[in-house]
Write a structure and sequence with these properties.
Layout: H1 3-10, E1 32-35, E2 38-44, H2 66-88, E3 94-105, H3 113-132, E4 136-142, E5 151-159
Parallel strand pairs: 3-4
Antiparallel strand pairs: 1-2, 2-5, 3-5
Helix pairs in contact: 2-3
Length: about 160
């Protein structure tokens, strides 16, 4: 078991299976594109253990609380880690989290996007530490996200 897998196990967290898009939905792009020593991660949402989208769905500030959004961002982080593990074979190969773009499905007037995306950032910092885990980040509100997911995150990492 790798170092990152051991940390996940100690935290009681598990990586989900690949995303299972709704019937009839075609996603004609890879979840992770490797370019040189960089992995560009397509937008991911929170996944359940089945590979489907984790509940609850909806907008922050209307159907979901900040705490539920934080949890959705953490689940999104686990989905991203699972995709990176499939692409790289080993999460310990990641040497730096470079950039993170967090999108929050926000009701009008909701402005606590950074607190929501902290669910992702705190997970990555816990797993990778303050050097490799530090990342540039944006956290923005969106009028809608695909399939009514509460959070979508894309990222860029360096690996060896």
């Amino acid at each position: 078991m790798t170092r990152i897998e051991q940390k996940l196990q100690r935290l009681g967290l598990a990586l989900p299976p690949p995303a299972a898009p709704p019937p009839g939905v075609l996603l004609p792009f890879p979840p992770v594109r490797l370019v040189g020593r960089r992995a560009l991660v397509s937008g991911h949402g929170p996944l359940a253990a089945s590979g489907g989208f984790a509940e609850p769905l909806g907008k922050l500030g209307r159907e979901l609380t900040v705490e539920q959004g934080f949890q959705a961002a953490q689940l999104t982080g686990l989905a991203i880690l699972a995709s990176l593990q499939r692409a790289l074979g080993d999460l310990d190969r990641i040497t730096a989290w470079v950039r993170v773009f967090g999108m929050v499905n926000a009701a009008p007037g909701f402005m606590r996007m950074p607190e929501v995306i902290n669910g992702f950032s705190t997970l990555i910092l816990e797993l990778y530490g303050p050097e490799a885990g530090a990342h540039a980040r944006s956290a923005v509100g969106m009028a809608e996200l695909p399939f009514n997911i509460p959070v979508e995150i894309e990222a860029e990492v360096e690996f060896e």
